[in-house]
Amino acid sequence: MLLDGKLIINESTVAPGTTREEFGSLGGKYFLACSPERVDPGNKDKTVRTISKVVGGVNPESLALAKVLYEKVLDAPVVSVSSLEAAEMVKMLENTYRAVNIALVNEFARLSEKTGLDVVEIIEAAKTKWSYHAHYPSVGVGGHCIPVDPWYLVDFSKKKNVNLTLIEQSLKENDAMAQVVADKVISQYKKGATVLLYGLTYKKDVKDIRESPVIRLARILQKNNIRFVAYDPLLNEQEIKAFGFTPGKLKTSDIFIVGTDHKQLSGDFKRCVDNNTIIIDGRNFFRIKVGKSVLGVGRSLV
């Protein structure tokens, strides 16, 4: 058989049981392992070579071979787990942990706002405790991991007659944040006002639109007849037009929306904001008041 003696490793993020189901009966005598990828796009300090790997095998021989392979090419620990399914579940836990904690802080942001508190101040103080791992509220989460992978787990759990109520509600909470930010824009918008949406990618300094919450925000604005132009330093005009948005230039606007806080924003905003500009800060980028006011997520600088 063509697969005899070959080592197959699934690095995709999948629900428990998927690797065995999809690759476990291909015919022949081959080795099979699972080691879901761990990457942090845009993080130059965390590369494929320096990030530890978790690996599980269909049998001890497969696990041993996969571990030897990764140890040859990585400068990071290779962690063995007991099975393919254990490796798959590790990645589910990693991404779901982040999704749930982001949802938690999003709820704290909405409460802080109603209470007249600054959620960023609260988080910065809380993280001085060793056991607190800081997460931050925003317009939402994006990419192909955090907003997507936990749904695989929710679907898997239902097949096992387990309701993951907390996880499912957390995912919905995160999805709702685009509407929360849109409502801030709608509340400040007046017919004829100029609106600039800055940043469309899901993460700063990364040219990746997948599951971007800013795209959801823009769609909501369109449905509410909020006329705006969009600008992203990582996208050209044709790429912006492909989403059905009008490309814009960096110039003074009545409403300046921070969708993505690219590094260029620290200089670019000065071309877009004057004393009368209302800033809707979907990333809590601004730490001091600029323009007329800064309406962030869980905080206001007025």
Fraction of residues in helix: 25-40%
CATH superfamily of the largest domain: NAD(P)-binding Rossmann-like Domain
Mean pLDDT figure: 96
- Summing up helix and strand content along with how strands pair, one would put the structural category as alpha/beta
Low-pLDDT segments, ≥5 res: none
CATH topology of the largest domain: Rossmann fold
The CATH class assignment of the largest domain is: Alpha Beta
Q: Order of SSEs, N→C?
A: EHEEHEHHHHHEHEHEHEEE
In the CATH classification, which architecture of the largest domain applies?
Answer: 3-Layer(aba) Sandwich
Count the DSSP helices.
10
Q: How much strand content do the residues show?
A: 5-15%
Explain this structure to me?
With 302 residues, this protein is α/β, with parallel strands linked by helices. The protein has helices at residues 18-23, 60-73, 84-115, 119-126, 149-159, 165-175, 177-188, 213-223, 237-241, 265-268; strands at residues 7-10, 31-34, 53-57, 78-80, 195-198, 229-231, 255-258, 278-281, 293-295, 300-301. The protein folds into two domains: 7-82, NAD(P)-binding Rossmann-like Domain (Rossmann fold, 3-Layer(aba) Sandwich), CATH 3.40.50.720; 104-301, NAD(P)-binding Rossmann-like Domain (Rossmann fold, 3-Layer(aba) Sandwich). Strands 6-5-7-8-9-10 form a six-stranded mixed sheet, with helices on one face. A four-stranded mixed sheet has the order 1-2-3-4, sandwiched between helices. Helix content is 38%, strand content 12%. The N and C termini lie far apart (70 Å). It is elongated, with a radius of gyration of 22 Å. The chain has ten helices and ten strands.
